[in-house]
Write a structure and sequence with these properties.
The complex is a heterodimer.
Chain A lengths: L2 H9 L8 H28 L5 H8 L2 H29 L5 H30 L1
Chain B lengths: L16 H31 L2 H11 L2 H28 L6 H30 L2
Helix pairs in contact in B: 1-2, 1-3, 3-4
The chains are: A mainly alpha, B mainly alpha.
Amino acid sequence: MSEAAGALSKFLGRGSAHEGAHHWRSQRISALALVPLTLWFLYSLLRLPDYQFDTLIGWLSSPWQALWMSLLVGCIAWHSQAGVQVVVEDYVHGKVAKPLTLLVSAFAHVVAGAAGVFAVLSVAFKG
Amino acid sequence: MAHRPLSPHLFIYRFAYTMALSILHRITGLALAAGLIVLAIWLMALAGGPDSYARFQQFAGSWLFAVLIALWVIAFVLHFCNGIRHLFWDAGMGLERPQARRSAAIVVVLVVLLSLLLLYGLFSKVYP
C-alpha cells in the first residue's frame, strides 16, 4: 500500500494504529504492580483500629504509607483507564458516541487519579 | 466509519461457565472504575480536614453506601483473583481447556471465601 493510501486508511478509521502492543503491555504491567499495592491497602485497612479522621490522618502522615497510597491511586487510574478504553472500543459504536465516551473516560480518570494523589500528598505534607 | 467485522461475536458461542467469569471480569472492572471516583472523594474529604471528613462520613453512613462498599469488595476480589488467572495465561500457562476450567473453579471458591473474610474484617470495624 502506498504511503498516501495508508494515511487515508488511518484517517478513515481502518487498520491498525500500531499502538496495540504498547497498550496491552502497559495494562499488564499496571496489573502486576497492583497485586502488591492492593494487598498492602487491604492489609492496612484491616490493621487500622477504625476509620475515624484522626486514625486515617495518623496512618497517611507516615511517608512510606503516603508513598504506597499515591502509587496505588496512580496505578489504579492508569490500569482503569486502559481497561475502560478497551471495553468502550468493543461495545460503544458510532462516529460521535465512541470518541466522546473515550474522551469523557480519559478526563475522568485523569481528574480522579490526580485528585487522589494530590489529597494523599497534602495529608502527608501537613504531617 | 468503515464496516469491518466486529471482534467478540458473543451470540454464536454455546455458553460455558468460563465465559461467565470472562464477562464478569469486564463488569467488575467497570464497577471498580466507578469505585476509583469514590476513593478519590474519600481521600479529598480526608485532606479537607475534620469538617469535610465529617460530611463524607454522614453520606458514607447510609445503608446504601454500605451495600455499595460490599459490592465493591466482592467486585475487587473477583477482578483480583481472575486477573491473576489472566496474568498466568499471558505468560502462556494454564491455557488448556481442563486447566482453564479448574482455575475457574478455584477462582469461584476463592472469591466466596475471601469476600466473606474481607467483608467481616472491614465491617466489624465500622459496626463494632
